[in-house]
Amino acid sequence: MIIGLLRGLFALVLGAAITGALGAAIQTQFNLAALAAASGQIEGADITLALRLETTWRDVLGFGPLFTLLAIASFLPAFLVAKGIVALIRLRTLVYTLAGAAGIAAALTFANWAAPMPAFIAATRTLPGLLALSASGLVGGWLFARLTPPRRRPGSLSGGLDHVSFR
């Protein structure tokens, strides 16, 4: 029981950390694209690959932990709902993967609604930005599903998609 709880906690935190790093990198690219578009009229304002990489790394270190906390807060309710859905349709990895993205999308939408500024994360001002950041949750949800074992059902050989029973 304790081992299972620790495994679940580890999977949640690792999935959220990966989501946080990916989300930070994605939002950086959207911000740099907006800067490049805005500065397109200024000569010599090109954003080099070296600058992109440095800025991305700094944002992963600086903004990544905040996005990781947002991922943890959004994964908890999303994965609880996913657990109920999995009990009905048994497509565990797919359901948790989609739940990760849905959780991030819901958290970002709520944060933008509740934040006093125009948008909590500038990239979420557009649908492509919101979808791209939500896609980072796909990875976190998938990782959580892969790192946590499926619940074994009585009479099941693997607890997975099989429906073999010895009753």
Which helices and strands appear, and what pairs or packs with what?
Elements: H1 2-38, H2 49-62, H3 64-89, H4 92-114, H5 127-147
Helix pairs in contact: 1-2, 1-3, 1-5, 3-4, 4-5
As a percent range, the share of strand residues is under 5%
Q: N-to-C terminal Cα separation, in Å?
A: 26 Å
Oligomer: single chain
Backbone CA Rg: 19 Å
Major sheet characteristics: none
Number of helices: 5
Write a short abstract of this structure:
The chain has helices spanning 2-38, 49-62, 64-89, 92-114, 127-147.
Based on the model shown, name its key terms.
mainly alpha; disordered C terminus
Tell me about this structure:
By secondary structure, this protein is mostly helical. It has one domain (2-147). It contains five helices and no strands. The two termini are 26 Å apart.
